[in-house]
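[job 4471] stage=fold_predict status=RUNNING
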Amino acid sequence: MEEQFILRVPPSVAERIERLLNENSSSSEDKSLDLSFSEDGKSGTFVIGNDHFPASLLDLPCVVESYKTYDDSVLIKTADIGQMIMVREEGDSVPDVLEYRHGLTPPMKDARKRRFRREPDLNPELVRRVEKDLLNIMAGGTAENMDILGVYQTRGSHKAEADDASSH
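[job 4471] inference complete, writing structure tokens
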């Protein structure tokens, strides 16, 4: 599999990138592209020519598969894409979440809210207690505040109980 990413840029930046890729690079004023991220790995800067644009790494609400073809009939899967680099204009607000709310196409607008269940509200104390009990059980102990009852039956007891139930 290849490594791929989705780069979403404003229309003005998209025109400049397209011009850079299509024209002779020596005649373009936008001779360089650069993308660098800060220490947190979620925010960074996209540079085209001498202009700097803020960028963010966002998780997509679902995985997108990427395909390519050599003969226009057989498709070959090349990657699963789960993140997108979003480049913004200088004055645009910084996204406050790490997950992009929408998908890549109009039908996936507000996909997280419309297509997926809400995550359950879990009591952190209950989660810690259950995790501690599971670790105790895996270590060969028992869970705290639990009584373990043994159920023992003799060989013919199921048949005798079934006969008693059918006679009533």
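[job 4471] summary: Residues 54 and 92 are 9 Å apart (CA to CA).
[job 4471] exit 0
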